[in-house]
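== Item description ==
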Amino acid sequence: MIPIITIDGPSGAGKGTIAQAIARELEWNILDSGSLYRLTALAASKEGLSLDNEEAIEKLARGLAVKFESMPQGLKILLKGEDVTEAIREEQVGMMASKVAAMEGVREALLARQRDFAKAPGLVADGRDMGTTVFPDALLKVFMTASAEERAQRRYKQLKEKGIDVNIAALVEDLKLRDEQDANRKVSPLKPADDAIFLDTTSMSIEQVTEQLLELARQRFSL
């Protein structure tokens, strides 16, 4: 059985950063599931598809030409050969992705693709329903969160470092709206798995969270 660590939680909780750190340390594969929905949303936008056209977006998701390349600075994400690593992180794409992720047909289309990432020596998967829907048998499940204000501050810092001018109050409202959409969607709503470890990272550093999860992994998988 392939060892799997799932890290679920709301946008801005630090799931991606921590998942990459854990995967690098353990030398395991990584799945950034949220990027698949962002990629679908971006591809739909590029093709001029309306978010009301669920059938067309489902078809798009099934044939998504995606490639992940592990780089020293993180994951490089390609869509039809184009580097869209930064483009899919834009706030507008994130809001679109939240709506796309609520589509049952799209979630079904991407489910098998996500499970294909589970290969030796192990997998670290981050997203919104990794522990509840995609990998329900994972031996280590974590639900990571932080206050909306702290998550907005982290996002604000990231965007400012990239030279993007943003409003902190608007970021807080966007995150709260996205949280509401994710928690109340009909298909795979955002919630902790029954056997998940709940971790509030509001007052924790990246190093503290990483070390805590590594210790949990060492115990759970006898590493």
Summary: Residues 4-211 form a domain with the Rossmann fold fold (CATH 3.40.50.300). The mean pLDDT is 90.
